[in-house]
Model the fold of this input.
Amino acid sequence: MAWEKEREIVSKQYDCGHCGNSLVSNKGYTGTVKGSNAWIYVCHYCGQPTYFGPGNTQFPGAAFGRAVASIPSEEVKSLYDEARNCMKVNAFTASVLCCRKLLMNIAVSKDADEGLRFIEYVEFLSEKGYVPPDGKHWVDHIRDKGNEATHEIKVMQPEDAKDLITFIEMLLKFIYEFPAKVKKPEPTPS
Done:
């Protein structure tokens, strides 16, 4: 897209909330909002605008965490993307709830029965070796934070969502991405 009267402004490094690329841009617009400086930068990858207002708030924000390859379940991939994208709009409680739900969906994608109690999904992942060594307490942390978000009148904080997304990312890489990179050797005939 071509923007009219776009000009050179002070350079800014950011992650584009539209295409996800990291960039440094010096093209865009300046203005004031209620007496404070504001900027609109134009991404040179996708051509979309990103607004930076007072306090350096960014809209749209960038998704938190990294994409994970080789997730075969569309439900798991979609929920992970949703958890990451909730961070763009400061929806931290929603992100935590997505991370909790991801544990159930991951377990079902690995052949757990549907309709189990939540704790049974957590136990399934642990018992079947889908949780890395010394990682059980992280799964329990996701469960506990998810339960707080679900059953208590408590709003989750950015740190809560970031912690859970970081662990879910690692868990997804451990379960799906890394095994897809190096295939299991075929058993040798005897």
Remarks:
- The helical segments are 74-86, 92-109, 118-127, 136-151, 158-181.
- The longest helix spans residues 158-181.
- The chain is about 45% helix and 20% strand.
